Amino acid sequence: MKLIVIFLSVLMFFTFSSLTPIAKSPKPVQCYDPNYVEISSVTYKNESYSVVLMRRDGNRVRAKYFAAKDFNGNNVYNRYKDWSQKVGNIILVSSGTYMDGSQTPVGLTIDNGIPVNQTLINDRMDALVIVFATGGIVVSNLKDGDLSVSGGGVDPTRKFNLRKSAIDLSDFMDWAKSQEATVFQTHLLAYKNNLTISATNSSGNSRERRFLAVGKDEEGKIVHVIVHCPQHSSLYDGSKKTLDFLNNGKDMEVTFMINLDTGAQDVFELHQSDCSINPSIRGTQPLSTAVNLLSYYFQ
Fold this sequence. Notes:
With 299 residues, this protein is α+β, with helices and mostly antiparallel strands. 20% of the residues lie in helices and 34% in strands. The protein has 4 helices and 17 strands. It has a 7-stranded antiparallel β-sheet with strand order 1-2-13-12-14-10-11, with helices on one face. A 5-stranded antiparallel β-sheet has the order 3-17-4-15-16, with helices on one face. It has a 3-stranded antiparallel β-sheet with strand order 8-7-9, with no helix packed on it.
């Protein structure tokens, strides 16, 4: 009888042991789907380019811009750090546009609907960049005076001429507040596939260059492209070579191209799809030194 009980106990042990689920290996960490983000190093006409091409299909790749300290005194780096820990899935983060000696953004600047600098520059910096709360980016050429926006009760057919009309500027700022949009001014290097900078109206300083270009790929799909040019060049020469590279080397129709600061705040950090840091494009300064930051993330 004891032998039967022992036998049944052993049988039950092995039966229940076989029913115990096998622990699965944890899924690999992934910051983004590599189908949406392509990182490459390209040589074109004896020039080297490091390229981050981001596809905007389905609004999965999104942008966020931090223009200045908030009203609680939190600096840009701390704001970015708090935000990035919440949103996760960071693709890259880069220094943005220019600042003055007091670290105030140069030109008209609105941060998430809050005015930071209300002075619109009229004689230079023709790119008005709008980063929407939904993660999209558009640029208007201030020289054309034909900015149009939608939402917030604004007539979408209305054309805003911010440099010529104080009413247009005021109404635009009201719209940005209602939409929690972020706005800043910077140099417009290319617009509608044409170079808009010349050797006579740009800095002749020679340094590494980094650009943000938005346009359409060979399939007509919207792409955002960061191009890092390690060869030292003037802003004009770097812009001219990069536009040619994007047009002919990458078959891209460029809607606009703007400069990303590689001077006083040369900040850049790129993640691989597994969230590790990519060493191919790196800034010379730590993120903590940034006065403004442009980040791309994946949802």
